[in-house]
Amino acid sequence: MKTNLLKNTELILLSFIILAFTSCKKEQQLPQTNRTLNSNSSLSNSSAVVSVSGGGQGTFYADLDGDGDIDGSHFGISVSISGDGSAKGHFNCLMAGNADILGLHLMSVKGKVTTGSGDANGATFSGSAKVNLGEGTMFNDVPFTVTVTPGGPGTGTLQLTVIGAFDGVPGDTKPGNGNYDLPPETVKTGQIKIQ
After folding, report:
1. Does residue 35 belong to any structural domain of this protein?
2. Highest mean pLDDT among 4-8, 50-54, 167-171
3. I need a labelling partner for 67 at 20 to 30 A (CA). Which of 7, 45, 59, 98 fits?
4. Does residue 128 fall inside a structural domain?
5. Does 24 reside within a domain?
6. 57: which strand partners?
7. Nearest-5° angle of CA 36, CA 38, CA 44?
8. Each residue of 126-166: pLDDT tens digit?
């Protein structure tokens, strides 16, 4: 049974990574919009777009939950942020297979992004997510915020905050504020692009 569970986890992880990279590849093929707006332009600030995309594996460079393993996650990002602060896209964070946290065999945050801000140096986006802790434990419509900086291994970063849940759980950097504030995670493989 453990072998089947491991194979299923590996298949889920592989599917997630393929989806993340496919989304990023499709986003890169889209024509880039002109972000320079002037008074003669018919475009408004709401049409200015910051595109955030990427996928790979991150590391916290630390054992957040005391189980002897360095924690990290697999991630996928495909987000477009308009000049008026509205945004659309998805953020996925998955701890499975060779990435774990809190001793869970599976933990995922699948988020729909609705607001954001940013520029070429970094972006922050928010929305609501389905959080899956495995073994049938799921939470819907959980607010989240993610802050990212661009780059590949050792350079790009992401930081996830789950709002209003899991306060004080191991790995929380600000216990007592009602949220689960993970520390910044550094890209280990893959990349984060902001255009």
Report:
1. no
2. 50-54
3. 7
4. yes
5. yes
6. 74, 189
7. 80
8. 999 999 988 788 999 999 999 999 999 999 999 999 999 98
DSSP labels, 15-49? HHHHHHHHHHHHHHHSPPP-----TT-S--GGG-E
> How far is residue 165's CA from residue 144's CA, in Å, rounded to a whole number?
10
Residues sharing a CB contact under 8 Å with residue 41, sequence separation 6 or more, in sequence order? none
The pLDDT assigned to 31 comes to 37
* DSSP-derived 3-state class of residue 6: helix
- The pTM (predicted TM-score) of the whole model is 0.75
- Residue 84 DSSP class: T
Domain count, the chain: 1
Q: Are 161 and 171 in contact (CB under 8 A)?
A: no
Give pLDDT tens digits for 28-81. 333 333 333 333 333 344 566 999 999 999 999 988 888 888 888 999 999 999
Q: Which two tokens stand for residue 125?
A: 């986006």
Task: For residue 33, report the phi and psi dihedrals to the nearest 5 degrees.
Answer: -85, 155
Residue 165 belongs to domain spanning: 2-30+48-194
Q: Which residue(s) pair with 76 in the sheet? A: 55, 92
Q: Which amino acid is at 50?
A: V
